Amino acid sequence: MDLRRLIVTARTWLPLMLVAAVLAGGAAFIVSNLQQKVYESKATLIVGQALSAANPDYTQLLVAQSLTATYAAIATTRPIMQSLIDELGLDASPGGLASRVRVDAPTASTLLMITAQDTDPARAAAIANALARHLIAASPAIQGREIEFQKSVDEDLAATQALIEATQTRVDTLSALENRTTQQESQLQTLEGRLANLRSTYATLLSFSSGSASNLLTVVEPAIAPTEPVLPRTLLNTLLAAAIGLLAVGGAAFLAEQLDDSIKDPDAVREVANLSTLGTIARMKGDRDRSEIYQLAALLYPRSGVAEAYRTLRSNVEFAAVDAPVRTLLVTSAVPGEGKTVTAANLAVVFAQAGRKVLLVDADLRKPRVHAMFDLANAHGLTTMLRSDTVRPEAVSHVTDEANLRVLTTGPLPPNPAELLGSHRMQAVMGLLRESADLVIFDSPPLQAVADAVILSSFLDATLFVTDVRSHRGPVQQGREALAKASANVLGAVLNRVPVHDRSGYTQYYGTYASSEGTDTRAQGAERPATRSTP
Fold first, then answer.
1. pLDDT tens-place string over residues 496-521
2. pTM for this structure?
3. Where are the beta strands (DSSP E) in 151-228?
């Protein structure tokens, strides 16, 4: 599918695509508002002493970074989740609570972020903070230390630090004396020795303390109750649903376009029938209950876009037959309902308007329509001439308000149309018809219905192949092959009922058939056709 067809398809389906987008977006908006709101709270911890140490140890920093992933993994284990449930009195299972908690450990960082979701904002914050406390309480045991032992070490460390501070104070006091006694000098030396021992002891205890451990967990930012829910994301859901609806209908439209084998444009006509398109006729709008004469756009609405399209078709037919002027022209189609009769009638009108003496012959001896279109009697016509050697075309044809146009209807329908059309008598009648006009245009049955059109095409000067934009490729190709087998001189094709947006520029300039109603004096008050029978 080329870009032009893509644009046309998108423009054709755009209203439905927009409706689908609005409906999908509206449904998503309603469903999102009906869903229960979910709140999210986050607590942030740091592993190790990277922030508090004046000179962080690189090895301890690497260990702390590695431990963050371990803490993230054990944070949602069943024992810890069960402890949270027991502490907070939650009505949930360990697995259900774990699905509402997320613990992230960013790469190359010692931060640990705990995120909890709940329908109650305060409970979400409580879960995040409680999990942080449980991880802090469990951290000494991760390295194999007993909690009681670690508590004792921390207490001894605090006591030793207090002794160091007290001893240092006494040492400073004695050192400040200018004239110390022998006893004071001895006491100062003793205190300095004790201070050295205390500092050594403090250093030893510090190596066992959790305060310098790489797996120390500290809360950097406690969780607080959020004010806005994180779920459902109403705006995002609405936009995504609208986009999905738009794309779904758009995809279905382009799929349908790809699967559609109808003849939509002149390129398809050339591809299927190997024929150039001599004219494209816009789809006529009107009431089906109205008389068929209103399909004679070239006669009733000469300033309409459809009438202009038939005049363009007339010019192209003349150019196509410039080397061998056409005196007899057959208008046919592959299947019924493609507009061949309307095309033949309007083409006859525009040729007559150009000054040619035209005879329109209804050669459809099975389901004739020309007489109904011109509102003519069908008591006499082509079959009358086939039965009698003395009947002249002028005696059974009808004149119209278009001075140069006469219409020859079928007359009584015979039981053997194909045999009549292929008879020698038909050849003789053809000679009479050719003598009576400059151009004789024949309307025939469809090619696939019967053999009548194929028979006529074999001895007429030229054939015009009418196809509808809704016609399928198979019948069109078969109809073209039937004409080729009859060695018919096919001038080209007429693409009928083309949507207005697919027409060329003159359609937009001159307007459409429907919009021109009432602008022509012939159309005003036209309750009966502008034809009259020969007296």
1. 988 875 544 333 333 333 333 333 43
2. 0.59
3. 217-221
